[in-house]
Amino acid sequence: MKPSLKITFLLAGMICSYSILSAQNKLKVSANLPMLPEGKKVYLIDIVTKATDSTLIKDHKFELTTKTDSSSFYIVQVGSEFNKDLGFYMHMGPGEVNVSGDVKSFSEASFSGSEFVDRWKEMISYMDKSCGMSMDEVQDIAAQMLKAQNIGDTEASQNLQKKYVDYVEKGKTAAKEWLKKYPNDPVSVYVINGFLFNKIPLNEMQDLIKQLGPQARMSRLATLMLNLKMPTVAENALLNKQAPDFTLTDVNGKSVKLSDYKGRYVLLDFWASWCAPCRKEMPFLKKAHEQFGQKNFTLLSLSVDEDQGKWRKALEDEKLAWPQLVDDSAKHAQTLYGITYIPTNFLIDPQGKVIAVGLYGDGVNSKLNGVIN
Q1: Which residue from 290, 285, 292, 269 is spatially nearest to 348, judged by alpha carbons?
Q2: What's the CA gap between 104 and 190, in Å, rounded?
Q3: Are the beta carbons of 212 and 184 closer than 8 angstroms?
Q4: Which residues are bridge partners to 345 per DSSP?
Q5: Which of 207, 227, 351, 363 is 20 to 30 A distant from 263 in Cα terms?
Q6: Which distant-in-sequence residues (6+ apart) come within 8 Å of 206 by Cβ?
């Protein structure tokens, strides 16, 4: 598994020994595994603060101790690069994590220690079962999907995309159920990060964090996510990457693939009938269609409406003359493109690569004038 990205003690009776207080502010991770390579350096990394502690493996054992005033998201890894056989990650707090077993990788080892260890194991088991696959498996699917897109294997790409979207949607549902069960557990912060971040609107995700109990909100990962701002266009993950392919239904019930338009510039526009800012962009899109529609350019609108009656009514009102698609009930395209707000659009070049994101107002024609002869 790879990371997705990342106390004040009251004195009872005015008496508190230094040794107890010190222990409560420390995280100790120890391992005794025959597979650990002798003499290699092992690291304990706080993903949020980037603080790093390290030690050497001796007699196939190691022990790492770090000061901590709250829970955070940590990686433990042998060597400078993360390897799932020689590393693991966990949302940890003050306390202990003990790893043991005559195994070939950390994923097969036995984990014990403080309460957060058992909660982490419970969470992983619950999410794997609810989603129908593990994070490792879905990451393999994502890699296969990218490979299929790059070699033009449309059928394989679409099959993999369906599996990926299904995992994401199941994960969103399961994550919200977990939060109801454990609203004050720091591990719930990781659940939000791992299964909801970039999959629901940012403000909705932050509202879920604010609804957690005080112990969970104290997590450094919670603070990090609460301080996030809407990413700028330049930070969009798809910019300069291959546009994910999809097949959806147009207004006439015909199946349309994004890859049908390969060889042309495509402005893929996500919108909805109820979205006022989207409707305000329509005059600019009409202008682009009129000026470039007869050239090497296609405008492709993709509605996220759940009520198709309202979508069709909006199409009549707006009199849109270019292809109109609607996302499916699984929100297939929205998931693939990481849509968290609308209007959002992507300019795709004839080779299928995203070359611009977020073209609005006169910026639409300005950009098209620069790339289309």
Answers
A1: 269
A2: 27
A3: yes
A4: 269
A5: 363
A6: 225, 226, 228
Total Cβ atoms within 10 A of residue 283: 11
C-alpha–C-alpha distance, residues 325 and 58, integer Å: 61
What span, in angstroms and rounded, lies between the C-alpha atoms of 199 and 210?
18
* One-letter amino acid for residue 345 of the chain: N
Q: What is the largest CA-CA distance in the chain?
A: 82
Please report which helix (H) or strand (E) contains residue 166, including its range. Answer: helix 154-181
pLDDT tens digit sequence for 109-144: 999 999 999 999 999 999 999 999 998 898 888 778
How far is residue 99 from each of residues 96, 112, 121, 362, measured CA to CA in Å? 10, 7, 13, 59
Record the tokens describing residue 295, joined without a space.
């050239």
**What gap in Å lies between CA 144 and CA 67, rounded to an integer?**
40
Tell me the DSSP string of 19-74: HHHHHHTEEEEEEE-TTSPTT-EEEEEETTT--EEEEE-BTTEEEEEEE-SS-EEE
User: Across the beta sheet with 265-271, what order do the strands follow?
Assistant: 255-257, 247-250, 324-326, 297-303, 265-271, 344-348, 354-357
**Inter-CA distances, 237 with 74, 288, 329, 348, 369, Å:** 24, 25, 24, 14, 25
Question: Exposed, middle or buried by CB within 10 Å (0-12, 13-18, 19+), for 324?
Answer: buried
Residue at token pair 């196939």? 60
* Tens-place pLDDT, residues 180-215: 999 999 999 999 999 988 777 778 899 999 999 999
